[in-house]
Specification:
Elements lengths: L1 E4 L6 H14 L8 E7 H12 L2 E5 L16 E5 L2 E6 L4 E6 L2 E7 L2 E11 L2 E9 L5 E8 L5 E4 L7 E16 L2 E16 L6 H10 L2 H20 L2 H16 L3 E8 L3 E8 L3
Parallel strand pairs: 1-2
Antiparallel strand pairs: 2-15, 3-4, 3-8, 4-5, 6-7, 7-10, 8-9, 9-12, 10-11, 12-13, 14-15
């Protein structure tokens, strides 16, 4: 069994050349040779950052009035390198029905910006910040205008702004498609709610007890985090991450079969490929 220790990502090509040289030495063998490669968490952290730095998330379910609501279905998406991997729907949150009028909150065009990855506790924590311009949650009102028809109406719901909103996810390294990929074990949306409208005593009571804005925004965060976790864990996303890492590190010369997480390093076991 051959064993290499990869000292730094700057020596990726050195690793590829070593693998290639050993490959040539065993090229006539009937069976692929076993191999073990060890990475520090900091080195793999760089790989995660490089593999996910082109990920884009857009959250939206607000559209023009369409006859019964402002709900635009499947208007949220996850992209990698500009290619759409998944689109998903976010349900609007109905806040209250008053005098035949339905008031609901919608998500308005929240887009991801900067991504950061850090290694901790045998895992990797991804932080994906959002660009915040204007109101992130907007209220809309719909009422009946006839037996089977509806129209827009004026809502009492205040617009909601998020401060420092971001996705925080815990990633676990896994062997996938002969390479290294990641599984999201947990995800959440964090950020503080800012509403000028609710700062006085009277309107503060109105916002928290009648509209119940904290509960509504937390429920919406949970729904979005669940959607993001589901689609990042999809086979298509894992395939893309595995392909990115294989191209950057393994040079298509090795097939990963297992990954072991130690306290200070990640040990990847696999086999060299024959031509």
């Amino acid at each position: 069994m051959y064993k290499w220790y990869k000292p730094n990502l700057r020596f990726i090509w050195s690793l590829v050349l070593i693998l290639g040289g050993i490959y040539g030495a065993i090229g006539s063998s009937e069976k692929a040779q076993a191999a073990t490669v060890s990475f520090t968490y900091d080195e793999v952290n760089e790989l995660v950052q490089q593999s996910l730095d082109s990920i884009e998330i857009r959250l939206n379910n607000l559209g023009p009035f369409n006859g019964r609501s402002h709900h635009r279905k499947n208007a949220s998406h996850i992209r990698l390198k500009g290619q759409s991997l998944s689109s998903f729907d976010i349900e609007p949150y109905k806040v209250n029905r008053v005098f035949g009028r339905t008031h609901s909150y919608y998500v308005s065009d929240i887009r991801s910006s900067m991504i950061d990855v850090s290694a901790q506790d045998k895992s990797f924590y991804l932080s994906l910040n959002f660009e915040l311009n204007g109101a992130e949650l907007q209220g809309r009102c719909v009422t009946k205008s006839g037996r089977k028809s509806y129209k827009e109406c004026t809502t009492f719901l205040p617009d909601i702004h998020f401060s420092q909103a971001k996705v925080v996810a815990r990633l676990r390294p896994i062997a996938h498609k002969g390479s290294l990929s990641f599984y999201v074990s947990s995800a959440k949306i964090v950020g503080d709610v800012e509403i000028e409208y609710c700062r006085s005593w009277f309107f503060g009571f109105f916002c928290t007890e009648f509209v119940r804005i904290p509960q509504r925004t937390n429920a919406l965060k949970l729904q979005i985090a669940k959607k993001v976790k589901t689609f990042v864990n999809s086979k298509r996303m894992r395939d893309r991450i595995a392909a990115n890492i294989r191209d950057k590190v393994l040079g298509n010369l090795a097939t990963v079969s297992s990954i072991n997480l130690n306290d200070d390093e990640i040990v990847i076991k696999g086999r060299l490929r024959r031509r």
